[in-house]
Structure formats: structure tokens, C-alpha cells
Amino acid sequence: MLVIKNLHANVEGREILRGIDLTVNAGEVHAIMGPNGSGKSTLAHILAGREGYEVTEGQVLYQGKDLLAMAPEERAREGIFLAFQYPLEIPGVNTTYFLKAALNAIRKHRSQPELDAMDFLALVKEKTKLVEMDQSLLNRPINEGFSGGEKKRNEIFQMALLDPKLAILDETDSGLDIDALRVVAGGVNALRSPERAMVLITHYQRLLNYIVPDYVHVLSEGRIVKSGDKRLAQELEEKGYGWVEG
Amino acid sequence: MTASEAKAYYLTQPSAPGPEWARPVRQKALERFAALGFPTTHDEDWKYTSVEPLVKIPFAAGSGGDDGAERRIADFGVEDLTPNRLVAVDGRFSNRLARLGDLPKGVIACGLAQAMSAHRNLVEPYWTRIADYREQAFSALNTARAEDGIFLFVPAGVTLAPIQLLFISSAAEDGPTVSHPRCLVVLGRGSQATVVESYFGMRDEAYWTNAVTEIVLDDNAVFDGYKIQMESERGFHIATQEARLGRDAVFTSHSFALGAELARNDVNAAFVGEGGDCTLNGLYVTAGFQHVDNHTRIDHKQPRCTSRELYKGIMGGKSRGVFNGKIYVHAHAEKTDARQTNRNLLLSEEAWVDTKPQLEIHNNDVKCSHGSTIGQLDDDAVFFLRSRGLDLHAAIGLLTQGFANDITGRVKQAPVAEVMERKLSEKIDLMAQEKERW
């Protein structure tokens, strides 16, 4: 589904990614771990199409297509979803209105009929249950007045609603208490499927107690320095990042 | 024309003399216009707005012909906003276009010329006494030249169903025209009125609307006003709205400025009794080469009055916005509570806004604040919306609309809110396309 080959990227002239190779197949869950500044979030942003990164070498293929040539909205419509590390508050923009427009843009792209207000609300009701989210929050502007945990739940709710093929979760576990973490992880687990791939980016091993990955990769100074299965995460937890960086 | 040629031109433009009792005032106003002439950017109040483009065009007096007005009213989507409506074409009241249901006893809704003859006792105490023309050239010219207009009187204790006032310019094809719409609203003690003013032209030609609206609120009266300015892209709109608030009166004004090549909108309110409440909301949205200047002034002349002001601007293309808001707290106006905010969103590198919030306080026992911001769309927010599948155009539109929402959300009349939101989203849609191309 996703093939990253020798990806190099700069931010403001500084090289952050120094040759990433990674292959993710449908149905797999990959965890990418690494210390602060290792390039984890940069990788997530480049995959989702954020501006401000200069790819200097390498390529990214998504379902056989050149991902880097696609606009962010094309990627979303083709099934890529990024759960943000720091979800924004956007005053004045109603959450329900925005999500209906987003979902219908994606459905249109997939040649599915657009949902009317009633069908949309039914779908929303079903998906909010998944992350135990208070549906009334959706009547507010995007994330306005949400707690940290509510913002993260909202990201997972959006993922459930938009039904992506490849979900990238950027430090979704950061700043969550254990109850919120359990709810968020429960939502993610419910969305695991043979058709869907997930990339979990995290700083902490804790998340992986709740979402068990098929593969774990350690990112350090812009390269994947170690790959393994879930036991690698345990080992990292015991020995610290110094072990792989050294 | 040069400024002095233009002055001479408008001084000699004919207009009907009106009733005997009003002639000395109109003569005085003409003299004041002659003395003041057109303002220049050397005048502090006109620092950011040059009226040169207006001055150089010789605008002939509008004919007042209302043929085809019905269709134009429907085109603008304002035919059914309220149960009642009064219409003036080129400032002249049109009996044919007025639509009035059963008005409560004592309510007067008619042409101003008619009211000046038939209800002199209700007009004379207020006419030209709320909007002071003596230092304002455009108000002086309006006072001297307005032959007619709209008059609304609501007697004490009466609540009037929402009423629309439509000011239409005939905007003839055979040359630019000027009109001087004049409006007087008098609300008796404890009465209540909702008034929706709309300004637009019969054609998308060059024309000039030079309007003055005076609003009198007796003690405890409530006025909820909306002004929708939708002049043509080639139109000029200069307008002053002045309100005088009696004790415990409540005045709310919502100004929506969407149209005109050059627009200047003054909204002034003065508390002349204690305990009044004034809210000024404004939204100005400019594209292309438009220029919109908003001036507001709130005079806290009496103790324990509250004012809240929020003006927001969205500027795209090479357009320019101006906000100049003054809150003046007079010496004995203790316990004044005044807050003023101006926020601006620039959609292009070449758009411009000048913002000048001003507080002048002559009393120590007050609570006052003001602030202004100028910003651009948040790139992170644009990216977030696109990452969820919206295209760039839709993302820009949604965020821009979101910026305007706390103003449109304050419209209490559902049909007015609907038409406002539609007009706004049409304009924002065009601006988003313009930005996307850029």
C-alpha cells in the first residue's frame, strides 16, 4: 500500500530525513518510535502533504501512485488520514458542517452518493459511540473549548467517519491520561481491518500496551535504525533510546 | 472636475424647496457645504479615504424613476424579509412600492416630504438635530438637497413588526446620478422597532448614494437595526447613521458592507440619558479594488451606560478597508462600561487595512477596553481542512466564513440572517477563487 524509498527531506535547509525506507501493507499496523527531533512528525506531515518540507531525494508510492505529486486533499480522498499531534481549534467553523463537507468530498471522489443530513447524522451517531464522544461537542466550532482528551478523541472519531485506507496517527497518545488512552486505543483497535493499514507514531511504549503493532521501527536522526516486532518496543522501554542512538 | 469645480457644481444643482419651515435649515446646510467643500486626506477623519474618484465625476440628480424596481428587489432577494416595507428610489418615497400590513395604532410610516407637511410636530424637533451637518460636508449636502425620504414614527409603548427600508438608486444608463436618501426614525417611550435598511442600485452603473439616517430613541425604547449595503461595484456610498439614546434605551446596529467601489459608513450613537445600552456590530468584505471606510463614534455623555462594539473586516484582492472607532467618555459619565474590538482578515498580499481604535476618557470611574488585530488565514488550519478532503477553495471559503460567523450569528431576524449569509457566502466564494488563483 505504501512504499517509501530512500526519502530525504529538508526543513528550512536543514536535513531532517536522511534516507527512510519503509513498506506498509494493507492490514498491517506499524509503530514508529523515536526520540524527540528524530524526524517522526516530519515523516507524518510529508505523507499527508503539508507544505514547508523539501524532499531532496527518494520517492513515496501509495497504491502504486506518486504520493508526493498529490495535493493534500487528493491524498485524503485516496484514503490517507493523519491524526494530528496538536489538533487545532478553528473558531467559527462548525464541526458537523465541516465533516459533512469533507465526507461528501471523499465519497464523491469514490463515486459514492453524497449523504444527506439525516444519513450523515446517523453515521455520526454510530461513530461517536466508538470513541465514547459526547455528540453535542460536534455542534461547536472545531475543537473549540475541547479538553486535550476530547481533541484526541475527535481525531479518532474523524478517522472512523472518513474511513481511510491508510491512517497515520501522530503521537495520538501524548498528553492523554490512562482512561482517555484506553478509549482512544479502543477506537483504533475497532478500526483495524485487513483492508486498512495504520502507522502509529509515538514517543512512548505505553500506547503499544493497548494497540499491539505488527512491526516496530526505531527512527533516529532521520533514519530507521532498527526494525522488529512488538518485542522491540519492550526492549526500548527497558534500555532507553540511548541504546539505539549509541 | 476639480474639488472646487465639483463644489460649485453641486451648489447649483436644483432641488425642490420643501416646506417653508425647513428652508432656513436647508439654506444653512448649503452654506456649510459651500464653506467646508469636499474633505481631503488632510482631514483627520478622512485620512485613509480619498474622495477624489467621487469628486471627479459629475453626478446628475437622479430621476427617481421606479420602473422595474420590483424585479430588482426580487433579484437582491430582499422582497420578503419583513412583513412591512417602505421604498425610496433616488431618495424619493415610492407609494407604489410600499407594502404595509395592519400597523398598530399611531404608527406612521410614510415619505419624509409628506411627514414634513402633515406631521411637522413629529419631524421638526428631530430633523437635522440628531445628525449634525455643520462640520460634515456630505451630511450638509444631503440636508440641503434631500427632497424626500422615509419617516417612521412608533408611539410610546408600541412594538412594531420588523420593517424594511429599501433605498434604491435608479442608476441610469445615460450618465452617473446622485441621490440623497434621508431617513428619520422616531421611537416613543418604551416602544420597539426592528428596521432593516438595504441599499442597492437598479443597474450596475456608476452612481452615488449620499445618505443620512437619524434615529431617536426616547426613554426605554428598543431599536434593532440592520443595514445591508449592496451597491454596485461601480457605485459610491457615503452614509451617516446617527442615534440618540434616551434613558435606558437599547440601540443595536448591524452594518454589513459588501458593495460599492468606494464606501464610507459612519455610525454614531450618543447617550443623552442614563443606563442606555448600545451595540454596534459591523462586517465589511472587500474584493478587487474596493475601498470601504467605517467610522463609528459612541458618546458616553451620561452615567451607567454600556456599549459593545465588534467590527470585522475581510479584505481580498487589492482592496482596502478602514476602521476608525471612537469611544468618547464625557466628564460626568461615571460607571461607563465600554468595549470595542476590531478584527481584520487579509486574504491577499496586496489587500490593506488601516485600523484606528480610539478611547478618550474624561472620567476615572469607568471600565473601558479596546483592541484591534490584523491577520491572515492560518496555514495550519488550511492544511488541516485539506487533509480531511476539502479542496483549497473550499478550505479558504470555510475559514473565511468562520471568521465572519460571530457577526452574522448576531442577526436576530432569521430571514435577514439567511439573506446575509447567502450574500456573504457568494462573495466569499468569489474571493476564495481569487485567492486560489493568486
What does this structure look like?
Chain A is an alpha/beta fold. Chain A is 35% helix and 29% strand. Chain A has a single domain (2-245), classed as Rossmann fold. Chain A has eight helices and twelve strands. In chain A, strands 6-9-10-3-11-12 form a six-stranded mixed beta sheet, sandwiched between helices. The mean pLDDT of chain A is 93. Chain B has a domain at 3-273. Chain B contains ten helices and 21 strands. In chain B, the strands form two sheets. In chain B, strands 1, 4, 5, 7, 8, 10, 12, 14, 16, 18 and 20 form an eleven-stranded mixed beta sheet that branches. In chain B, strands 3-2-6-9-11-13-15-17-19-21 form a ten-stranded mixed beta sheet, with helices on one face. The radius of gyration of chain B is 21 Å and the shape is globular. The model of chain B has no long low-confidence stretch (mean pLDDT 95). Chain A binds chain B through residues 48-51, 71-73, 75-77, 81-82, 84, 88, 90-93, 98-99, 101-103, 105-106, 109, 141, 158, 162, and chain B through 378-381, 383-392, 394, 398-399, 401-406.
